[in-house]
Amino acid sequence: MINIETQSREQRKVESAFQERHFSRLKRNIVLLYLIRGISSIHFFGSVMILFFEEWGGISFADIMILEAIFTGGIFFLEIPTGTVADKYSRRLSLILSYFVNIIAVLVYISYPSFLVFAAGELIWALSVALNSGASDAFLYDSLVELHQDHHSKKYFAQMQSIGLITMILGSMSGGFIAAQFGLRATMLYSAIPLVISFFLSLFLEEPKTHQASRKERAWVIFIKGWKNIRKSLSLQRLIADSVVLSVIAYYILWIWQKRVMVLELDIQWFGIVHSSMILAQVVVLAVFRPLERWLEKRGWQKAKILVLRATGLGTGVGFILMGVFQSIEVVLVGIIIGAGFGLSRRVILSNYMQKHIESEQRATTISTVSMIRMLLLLILNPIVGQAVEWNMNATLIILGAIAVLWSVFNRLRQSDLHE
Prior knowledge:
The chain is mainly alpha-helical.
């Protein structure tokens, strides 16, 4: 009897020690995920991507847009099959494979300057993105659940996002100087270093016991379910239309700005600073948006929300028009920062309003459908816009800007669509 009690006590001690060690590793997960997000967000090539493709790669802007369509399509079709890695095995394995595959993609990119080689690199990179899709966020949330800290999840996610944004800015600023000193190929090559570090850090992650399979459905099933939800609400339809149209237009500023300033002979070492300014402009818009709405509402502007939202759309269009009309590098840079600041932040703003029109149990499916609509539109438009830029870049910028302005003025959004 004494032996049984002793064994039971010893077993409880072992289980308690194991549980303490598991909790300690889950706490370590949070630190590791912060580090991984920060380090993996360091991309030295982002601010000189067009130069990398055109000058080192020897391909045209139209070819670059075709490559981007391949990348977008790759993510779209690989999203579901790669989800089985996280569901059937573990999210930890999915993350580890993601960084390993990303390293391979970088090595493929720098192996030889050829469209076909770049296309292979895009597909491999798309596989990496699909493997990582939502895995790190889910990993963090599951760790917080086991640590009974999930009620603070917003704080942790915001911190992780902020760390990634800061390091992205640092990487962008460094990219221009690396390109100027060591060449365009070096910006892509050196970007493998953060990925290698992220890969090794991911090996030390502890899989939470609360891991639940996401049970990803086929893309077309998700799309149909989400579309049924969207059809029920006119307000949601108007919000989605506004979000998709203007975010797709704003997306092209990420690709055209480098080509525009190249024509105006901006020194390559400034590219990183321009790209960082575009990111900071988005941060400023997101920080100012809500306080500005409240300030106007306190002063009796009953339609403050819709006016401020329309202003962001107009700002996007004006930015594109400034880029297309003027030949002064100073004015063009102002246009780039305005267009990026307003245009690239609108999806985040509108996403908040969209959430209010979607039932909780339908939210993930509906948001996925909106993402698919945007992705499919980019898949179609990328080659068209790429060819248009080749024919006449300034005219393309003016047309995109004019569409954004006209849409912002005449779209059918209502103040009632923007309830809190």
